[in-house]
Amino acid sequence: MLAWLEQFLARYPELALYLAITIGYYIGAFKFGSFSLGPVTGSLFAGILIGRFAEVPVSSTTKAFLFLLFLFGIGYSVGPQFLQTLRRDGLKSVALALVCTTTGLAAAYAISRFLQLDAGFSAGLLSGSLTQSPAMGTATEAIGALPLPEDVRAQLVAHVAVADAVCYLFGAVGAIWFCSVLGPKLLGVDIEAEAKELERSLGIEQEADGTTSGYREFEFRAYKVAADGMVVGKSIAQTEAMVADLRLFVLGVRRDGTVIEANPTLVLNAGDILAVSGRRDDIVHLLGTRADEIEDRELLDVPFLVNEVLLTKLTGRPLGEVASESWTRGLYLRSVRRGDARLPLGPDLILARGDILTLVGPEPVVARAAAQLGPVIAPTTATDFVVLGLAIFLGGLMGAVVQIPIGGISVSLGTSVGALVAGLVVGHLRTRHPLFGRIPDGAIALMTSLGLASFVAMTGLHAGPVFFSALKEVGIGLVLGGAVVTLTPLVIGLYFGRYVLRMNPVLLLGAIAGALTMTAAMAAVQTQSKSPVAVLGYTPAYPVAQILLTIWGTVIVIATAGL
């Protein structure tokens, strides 16, 4: 039976790949506290396991195709934030990302020279210790360009997977533990108290269990104005000003049986029925105890929209300032998303170009707001394959043609770096021309998740037959060296951010997690601080680190290969 299965997997490598991805996603989902392997590293281990069992042939063309698709997707998703990040108020986080990533590269190079590792082990040391699996791909391409015999290059590629698998465990656990436990102790701060103080300074109100923020959920109800009501004789504008901090709006009025326009200058009378929108708690607890609620379907039959808007205007302004504009009357903000991160809402949150705002309100109100903020992102299921294919081709062409002189010879950037740059360019252009190169979020998610998982699974399949022999070659030194590479940028980044950049401790720890592109570490900081605000440090650092750490795969191969 086992012999048959071995022959089957070797004969049908595409099915072996699907099996590796399945096992990888399954084991990657298991959590041990805040730690989990994740689907990508899970797929790597699954590939190694299957590769140990059966010698599965791996197509280099398929690997390259999937990896270029992944890199373009990553560039496309961070493109709207990348260039803006370099210019906005997150410059401290950007500086920290530069220091951490550069320090990580230097540490990986120093350890690889100390342990006398070859280019493959060195690249895996970097990618695993700094938890940046995409660096495996750029390193693999760089190895393929080395002037070495084919069997030697194949061995080096296998070594990348071996070292990555060995070093990733401490890389992930170490980053989570450092950011959430050791980092606060080294700084001597109470991270929960610091987070609460930061929330107060930013005007962010924490949500209690069972309640929701007024920015995200609201009610639309009808109430009858009592004869002795506080609003009798006041205009709608004056009425709304009485509770301006609660953002309650009168969007409809029924008077003497007739629905009339809720003009801000309209003076309210006793007996009027008002259609009021606002935060559920505010409506229920404020109006519910003072006015009679009326069931008036006609009055409440107002078409509401929930639209996502790509912010291209009014950038660099605080949310509270924008919320005070006259055109925001009747408008609610459900969320602000920057890249993949959802930001905590508060009046001092600085809006940045490329942010995605989820707006809720009556149809004309949302349309009016979109004209002030940016284009509505209409749902689409169609991918612009013309832009997708051409961008990857041109980016890969640029990467192959552009030569960098190093050590007396010229080395190309590589098609992988070119595809990444192409994704950045297209992603940035869509913030200025939203209809250009549209790719649905679901398609991007598939490109990035399946593309990388498939690539590393195939790398694992390739490395499986030599895994234990290669591991025996480097021994325990690789494990200890990987720990040094993981901790060095964390420690240096911590003290650089605190004493040179003077960063808030919570934002600093979030930025360090972003500098290692370790979302789980950021989540651990949020858990320890009992606050979401660490994401404000994470989001500026993440896109910069994502790009640099991916490129470092090429750099360390060139450096350790003696070129």
Architecture overview:
This protein has 563 residues and is α+β, with helices and mostly antiparallel strands. The strands form four sheets. A five-stranded antiparallel beta sheet has the order 5-4-6-3-7. The radius of gyration is 27 Å and the shape is elongated. Mean pLDDT is 83; it is low at 207-216. Helix 6 (119-129) runs antiparallel to helix 7 and helix 6 (119-129) packs antiparallel against helix 22. It folds into two domains: 2-198 and 383-560, no CATH class; 219-278, Alpha-Beta Plaits (2-Layer Sandwich). The chain has 22 helices and 13 strands. The chain has helices spanning 2-11, 13-28, 38-53, 60-85, 91-114, 119-129, 134-144, 150-187, 191-202, 236-242, 280-287, 297-300, 319-323, 363-373, 385-401, 415-432, 441-463, 467-474, 476-500, 505-515, 519-529, 535-560, and strands spanning 31-32, 35-36, 219-224, 249-255, 258-260, 273-278, 292-294, 304-310, 332-338, 341-342, 356-362, 403-406, 409-412. The relative contact order is 0.20. It is 60% helix and 11% strand.
